[in-house]
Amino acid sequence: MLRQYELVERVRSYDPDADEGLINRAYVFSMKAHGSQTRASGDPYFSHPIEVAGILTDLKLDDETIVTGILHDTIEDTVATPEEVEKLFGPNVARLVDGVTKLSKIEAQSENERAAENLRKFLLALSDDIRVLLVKLADRLHNMRTLHHIKNEDKRRRIARETMDIYAPLAERIGMYEIMNEMQTLAFRQLEPDAYASITRRLAQLHAEGGDLVSRIGLGLQLHLADNGLEAEVTGREKHPFSIWRKMAERHISFEQLSDVMAFRVIVDDVADCYRALGQIHRRWPMVPGRFKDFISTPKRNGYRSLHTSVIHDSKMRIEVQIRTREMHLQAEKGLAAHWAYKEGKPVADIHVPWIDDLVEILDHADSPEELLEHTRMAMYQDRIFAFTPKGELIQLPKGATPVDFAYAVHTRLGDKTVGAKVNGRVVPLRTLLDNGDQVEILTSDAQTPQPSWLRFVATGKARSAIRRFVRHKERDETVELGAKIYDEIVARLPAPLSREALPRALKKLKIEDEDALMIAIARKRVGDEALMEALMPGSTGGDVAPRPAAQRRAISIRGLTPGVAYHLAPCCHPIPGDRIVGLRREDEEIEVHAIGCDLLASGIDADWLDLSWSDDSDGATARLCIILRDVAGALGTMATTLGNKGANIINLAQVHRDGSFHTFHVDVEVHDLAHLHAIMAALRAADPISSVERV
Q: How confident is residue 166, by pLDDT bands cut at 50, 70 and 90?
């Protein structure tokens, strides 16, 4: 553990103007606050915040950040208060300490809720001051270094999983690769102990068999560059166990089949020398196709710059080579901390990290703890590709991203209005996967809204959360509207008109906060018809004599439905406007709309039946047809042409049976209403190659 004077000396070694008194006061305050507390290892608890402060001095951070590291657990684990911290150390330190403090005392129903709430507060704090993230990463790194002292295996694995999913990606996103690699290695050791032991054992065997192979190859690289007039510093290392394990898993190969287990860094004076060194290496050793990446011309979103290549060395093994300048190397090792604001005299608040804004937007959109964790992990932990706007602006996206993801990455409003896309000048479907270097132009319409179907193919957390937010709002509006119609129908069954005070009294009796919440509860059948009638007009259901069901008197009109939202058209019978319809109303489920002749209804399914009718402006739904074609040339083309001529769009086509002379297809077509469907079926039956047409 660092002593008080040692900590002060480490800070003053790189920042002579640091406030020595502030650091000393924090050291004494934290020691007194933690008192006799101990860690799982048996060491005094006070050793932890001091070691965290030591990690922060390695990053050469300012005195306020060091003090935050010393004090980061005082509010959470001692009797110290935020007011006390602010009085003694100033508002900046108090704000930073509060941002780092976990919400361990919150009352949550699940581990996910606790983790999500901690993450929510943490992300909001770091959006205000990035130093919160640096302190948190140092805190988590020291906790991982001492994780083996915790006896509870489940707790160790939970902390390791959280580190792997959240904190290691966060370290990567701000370019702090040293911390990321150490976190991943320590977490991997806990999560996959057998795999970790196997890989480390094989690395040791490889090292023993080849002697100091890394040093020999590194020296050979350095001499080759020197012979060609390039002064370079070359260092080499075996790759980290987690990195090796991940490559084995991705490529589905064994350790023996993995050839590139060594990586070398070539550090030169300037950018021109980077490309010269690359040329000399490629001239001397054959390059592995597809393994070259230029992060100098197109830096990573975290500012990382370097040239990456893989070559086949004389020893017949593949090696990875990273070429960079000294400035790039400092950025790669220290990340965001390499450009710390106090060195340049700029206020910390001026440091702007765009991806944090995306995470904060996800916070605003997420509806549940699981959704927040899912979207945050998606946003942080995926390989990246680069795409360009028509004006040449570079947009970074995860692999598997689509034009919809691209649109939301540019701006949320652009994503909401997306109707199509051009990739490299060619119109493509919205589910098209983007490649590196694609130029993407988004086509928009003011009439467009986010589509629930987009959720099936979007890859970014930002896009997914924005779409889900729209769907939730749409669902709520539609559910309230439908609930209001059911409410009006229930009120019509009452024996007498309602007074104005009846509804407020009913809300209090049912313990529901407002009218909208009541309408949602009615639509979702959380409140039964009889219970509502009794709350509105006591005695109206005859409960004092004998219970009697109150029958529905008239059909409830519904507007055109939004698939997958508040209520949906049943996939078993595909009802369309013009069909006689009923709704199945179950507790806490969407209302499912069926045609009256549906086989599912005939089975006596246990649910409330709701008499429904289409409103006058209902237009558009999907109908399924069973079409039998004769086995003649052009039969399928005739069918498609007939459907097109009648304005029916084919959205799905499946061959379900083939019998020599006949082929049976199930065809899903978009139609306006029942009359439109009948006209389509009549036209199909009139076509010669079509044997029969039936609605399914």
A: confident
Tell me the pLDDT of the chain averaged across its residues: 81
Query: Which of 595, 556, 601 shows the shortest CA–CA distance to 579?
Result: 595
Q: Note the pLDDT tens digit of each residue in 549-562.
A: 455 555 566 655 55
Question: What band does 548 get if pLDDT is binned at 50, 70 and 90?
Answer: very low
Left (φ > 0), alpha (ψ -120 to 50) or beta: where does 604 sit?
A: left
User: What's the pLDDT score for residue 376?
Assistant: 60
Q: How many Cβ atoms are within 10 Å of 194's Cβ, its own excluded?
A: 7
The DSSP letter of residue 400 is: T
Indicate the residue type of 595. Answer: A
Closest to 668 measured CA to CA, from 679, 654, 678: 654
Say whether 44 sits in a helix, a strand or coil: strand
For residue 354, the tally of other CB atoms under 10 A from its CB is 8
Q: What is the DSSP string of 566-586?
A: SEEE-TTT---BTB-EEEEE-
Predicted TM-score of the model (pTM):
0.56
Q: Answer for the pair 430, 454: CB distance below 8 angstroms, yes or no.
A: yes
DSSP character at residue 551:
P
Q: Domains plus CATH for the chain? A: 4-184 (1.10.3210.10), 196-342 (3.30.460.10), 555-615 (no CATH), 621-695 (3.30.70.260)
If you search the block for the tokens 């959006």, which residue do you land on?
127
More confident: 186 or 574: 186
DSSP state of 287: B
Could you list the active site residues? 76-77
Owner of token pair 């000393």: 24
3-state secondary structure of 398: strand
Give the ranges where 393-511 is alpha helix by DSSP (H): 403-410, 412-416, 461-492, 502-510
Q: Does residue 342 carry a pLDDT above 60?
A: no
Q: What is the reported pLDDT for 341?
A: 40
Are the CB atoms for 565 and 478 separated by under 8 Å? yes
Work out whether the CA dihedral 680, 685, 687, 692 comes out positive or negative.
positive
The DSSP secondary structure of 422-443, one letter per residue, reads: EETTEEE-TTPPP-TTEEEEEE
Q: Is the pLDDT of residue 380 over 70?
A: no
Rounded to an integer, what distance in angstroms lies between the CA atom of residue 28 and that of residue 37?
15
